[in-house]
Amino acid sequence: MTRNLFLKLCVGTALLTTASMVHAAEHEVKMLNAGTDGIMVFEPGYLKIAPGDTVNFVATDTGHNAVSEVTPDGSKWEVGFDGGKVKFEQEGVNIYYCLPHKSMAMVGVIQVGQAVNKDDAMKQADTLEAGFAMNQGRLKQYMAQVK
Ligand SMILES: [Cu+2]
């Protein structure tokens, strides 16, 4: 291999690496009647993504939506019963629920980058947890994965 070709390959690799780093990813959360964490559940219930990534909420089973309860900057987001995509720009912890099944702990956690609002999110998770009639401990388990 000539030195010139070697350099060209190095530059090419570096460009590809940079391109994949800035390329935002899309993740999938299924809205389910039953999953590995029990009934009336988002899957995965805890998800860590990078700022700028998108989450596609898929209405795998009908009758579920997704509504934000906790967001890093206090903004609100919502996905309807047909599912939909949400793009997350703000770093921090999002806690969300399914409106018809909130009391059954149909909740999920999306951590975007660093958990800048972790203390506040933990407090609000405890408040939510106290209101669950079923699936107690599910949200606690998700929040335990927030680092
Ligand atoms: Cu639901």
UniProtKB/TrEMBL annotation:
InterPro entries documented for this protein: Amicyanin/Pseudoazurin, BlueCu_1, Cupredoxin
Pfam family, one: Copper-bind
A Gene Ontology molecular function term of the record: electron transfer activity
Named cofactor requirement(s): Cu cation
Gene3D superfamilies for this protein: Cupredoxins - blue copper proteins
GO CC aspect terms: periplasmic space
Keywords assigned: Copper, Electron transport, Metal-binding, Periplasm, Signal, Transport
Residues of the Blue (type 1) copper domain: 30-112
Cofactor info, note text: Binds 1 copper ion per subunit.
Signal peptide per UniProt: 1-24
Residues reported to bind Cu cation: 64, 98, 101, 106
Keyword Metal-binding included in the entry's annotation: yes
Nucleotide-binding keyword on record: no
Subcellular location(s) of the protein: Periplasm
Protein's recorded name: Pseudoazurin
